[in-house]
Amino acid sequence: MGYAETMARKSEILFRATGLDYREFSHGPLAFDYEAMMERVGYPPEEMRRIQSAAGVGNTPMLELRRLTEAIRRTSPPGKGARTFVKDEACNPSGSFKDRRASISAFHARKTGYEGIIAATSGNYGAAVASQAAMYGLRCIIVQEAFDSRGGGQPEILEKGRKCEALGAEVIQTTVGPELFYVLLSLLEETGYFNASLYTPFSVAGIESLGEEIAEQARRLAGRNPDVVAVTHAGGGNITGTARGLKRAGCSNTTLLAVSVDLSGLHMASDRDFNRKSFTTGHTGFAMPFTSWPDRADVPRNAARSLRYIDRFVTVTQGEVFYATEALAQLEGLERGPAGNTSLAAAMAVAREMDRDQVLVVSETEYTGAGKHPTAQLAFAEQMGIEVESGDPRANVPGRRIVVPRDLSQMAVVDVDLDRLRESFVHRAAQEVGRALDEREIEFLAAETRSTPERVRRWLPRRTES
Prior knowledge:
The chain is α/β, with parallel strands linked by helices and 466 residues long. It is 44% helix and 14% strand. The mean pLDDT is 95.
């Protein structure tokens, strides 16, 4: 059960914990049949929606943010200021869209005879897995990366741990670093439980119903497909599943806007930096590495492939998310947590670029609680020596200063260069293979980056061109 010995058995452990043999989709070390892997879930979209509905998941309301839209229009050029809606995913059983991910995993685990279910997560997904496990009579273990070496933990992570325990899960908390994956593998091997990873086809396919519902409700409420759907972006599952659902529902011209909190300069695996961030998800510490190389996950092939689906990628500051949180509560009477409010913060700026008759949908809200509230997060930041002030959010410095805007006109987004991420993806793939890429691999990279084989060849280091 030592670290090296357990990691050497990784593939064997993960196969037993899901029943998915990723080798059947693979075409060498790089290329694989992505759509065949997604179809391997074995549940048609209509059946997945029935499974979710039976567990109280999905069919959440879409709300038009009328007062917020009017506030946006007052700071917009003439004729601008899109109608802004939000999908209120806090109405799911555990309070976030991640119930959609957990529902299919829990259903499949019960159907295939597993006695329990395990997930490694510091976020809302743990509560979702615990909730769905309770509904299906499964035992549940949640492994949380919760503390730095001094025993300090962020209020939001501790809040989520308490929620998991309230839903009947056993919560095992680790310090930051490689310990998390080792503990996960050890528990999967010891218990024989199902691995409800965020990155399996079961998890990502479960989000597709969110995209379908957004399309259906936008047509009913606004009479048209959404022009933009803003999605908080971290590991890529939210973007991937929502985009696939939207496309299935016929929204081929909808812009998928990925949004992350800018935490550049902070290293998520650093003991020093771990508690110098005020967000546990939806930030660049996850989004950048997972976008440029998704297969850094706890499964051999990640079903979340965000570069296949992102149309535009923007960042916002921590202070802007805190501002959006209070604006949503005080203008619309919706007190919600920071994950969905990350994409809301971007929406408040992007809507000003759009025509008044256009429709922008924020894809989610999440539940809130004592540890998720801005006052708890900002008080903890000050304890960590971070300055908190109001003013121009462009003065924000991750890990050093949080600046909350004084008014809505200061809300803005910063565009991320997607081509740089695509080129980084191609470079990493070439390094992983360590030889000249064949035509099948180049075609695979073109699909992964939504580009062409010619562009992939231009991005390749010279020594790896075929």
